[in-house]
Design goal:
Helices cover about 65% and strands about 0% of the residues. It is mainly alpha-helical and about 170 residues long. It has one domain.
Length: about 170
Amino acid sequence: MTALRRFLQCLILACSGVLLVTRLLQPEPGFYGLLGLLCLTAMLLQLTRALKPVDPGRPERGHAAALGGVLILLGVCSVLNGAGYLLDLHALPADGGNCRALCSLTLMIRDSFGEVAGKLAALILWAGSGAFLCEVGRRTLRDARAAGDSATRTRSGRNAAGIQGPARK
């Protein structure tokens, strides 16, 4: 499992490096595209934590911690996406396209109240959804840490639930 995890991490870093170089070689690389690429790379690397082998001496937090980290990174990317609309890093969508809920609400507000109101609505909607994802990720990490701490062994070899663990050497 460790070899697979290391291979995936190397593959993610290599592909991200190639994409980063091709992005930087463009006449105007754009800060927002670079930031999106770095966020995607960080999320993929965070997901490889779920493949981390379990160490018997340490509490298990693998999957929940990986999921919590990914949710926090998704939330940060959503907040940055909303800020990109307000700072004119990218334009409001011309039609609903693939983004149904948030983009449609933004378009409806832009058509009703103007361009500035549409940008503010995009910021509020994207930042709100990002803050929600960050909070869910934070709570997932907190619960994973609490579960891992309660599973740690005492000097007698028993965990918090009183279950005898394997003998230590």
